[in-house]
Amino acid sequence: MTAPSVGRLVVLLVALLVLATGCKFDGAYDLPLPGGRNTVAKEDGYEVTADFTDVLNVVPRTPVMVDDVPVGQVLEVDRVGWHATVTLRIRKDVELPGSVIAEVRQTSLLGEKYIALVERPGDRAVTADTSDRLAEGDHIPLDQTGRNPEVEEVLGALSFLLSGGGVAQIKTISQELNAMMNGRSDELRDVLGQVESLVTALNTQKGDLITAFDSVNELSKTLVGEKQVIAEALDSMGPALDVLNEQHDALVRMLTELDDLGVVGTRVINATKDNLISQLRHLEPVLRKLADADNNLVPGLVSLASYPFPLEAADVIKGDYANVAFLMQIKLTPVSQGGLIPSTLPDLQQLCLTTPLAPVCTQPDAAVGQLCASAPGLPLCRPATLARVPAALKKSAPRSVR
Hints:
The structure is a single chain. The chain is of the alpha/beta class. The chain is built from 12 helices and 8 strands. The N and C termini lie far apart (about 170 Å). Mean pLDDT is about 75; it is low at about 395-400.
């Protein structure tokens, strides 16, 4: 057969094929191919779409597999914006969850590409609610699609690693580590032991740390909730800070003067410390005597308020006044006989101790002079008696000191 005859025969076969398949012809994909036993007819499957950022060289009729078992094929690959939308046809008897992941994979190192449908960990292959299943018209978004690295990408990364990138850096790091560890094995071992202790302690306190972080989280939520209140408080602090700024010089001057006052007070306290301690020590016996008389002091003060009547008289006397008759007996006899007339120096001293002149009783000479000046008619003030006063004072001096 001649060449023109062969050409006419091919054209005739193509024309007959077009007539046999209908009025539409989309190129080589409409031609029947061998090995089409894994394709799924329209009436035997359902169609879904999936978005991919990169579909590599996936073309129509690329297999769709689940667990390496063909379950459908790719119908169309279209560009939508900056990603590709792939239309898949899957057999009706294949039930998949709506959260299925679609990945572009490769059958072998140099094998063909295919679309793998993978269930998420924990997803059920078949759900009781049919609304959770992948069905006709569903769409798989970009966050549920992906692809495996290409052989060219793996070889390119390996070439970069072996051509002076990673290997040379690993060698440098190894040399630096050896130089750092040389002769410091004990220190490094101690550091690693301390790190181990730290990690162990942190692991032991893990519950407390989590509780602390939760508390900080709750505090942060509270602060966020009170954000407006905190903002208003910070805004209100502005005028207060302005006032403090205006009073800065006065505050500094006040603190300086307070420091000077502290210096003066310290000097005064240091100068009067000994005297103050001495006075407190002298006050101690008085306070002790007052403390010893605590059981009698209060009743005595209460009785003094009703003197000369006892407290029981308040229930006896009726009215707002009462008549009282006092009987006083004064014996003008020497003190030694129970009277009030001092005839000797010891009598004078005893009488003096019962009068407001008690503080000067330790100086009998002056007391005799004051007494005789106010009452010269006393027997003690006679000239003969006064002449014996100095000798009597010397004799009675030890007794008076006691």
